[in-house]
Amino acid sequence: MVSTPATIFTKVYLDIMEMPKANSFKYVIAARDDLSRAGEGRSLRNKKAKSVSIFFFEQILCRYGAVGEVVTNNGPEFKEAFQLLMNRYKLPQIKISAYNSKANGVVEPGHFIIRESILRSCEGNVDKWPDYVQHAFFTDRCGRESVRRRPTHTNSSPGAGVQ
């Protein structure tokens, strides 16, 4: 049996995808909510734990409040400074082993859609991809899954996740 969180951003999946180098940016970090599948993301110059911590604090904790659990892989970017952040706010971090990579299946399928959306927005000039990261995540939140769900399951409605 799989449990479903009662509210949005109770369980968050984090992952980093590599992009072509452009204006010193090389990565996109993606956080996806388990309930609504809403995503948040940002372009990163590096995938160090400090960069991941800043993203998580600014775009997840400051927007949605404390989350119940954070699911990550065992990459070095999710250690050190990120681990300090998790400990500081007493957030449980679930680390996925290489033997169970499918456990990160909430965030992985969205990578292709986000990457394609970003690159197609560049209209052939791939060096501009960092300018379109926020647009791609906004479009992702407004379309696809969120449109098919009842209003109580979208993250923009009052009482989101309450039935």
TrEMBL record:
GO molecular function: RNA binding
Keywords: RNA-binding
The Integrase catalytic domain, residue ranges: 1-163
PROSITE patterns documented for this protein: INTEGRASE
GO-annotated cellular components: nucleus
GO biological process: DNA integration
Domain of life: Eukaryota
SUPFAM superfamilies: Ribonuclease H-like (SSF53098)
The name this protein goes by in its record: Integrase catalytic domain-containing protein
Organism, scientific name: Rhodofomes roseus
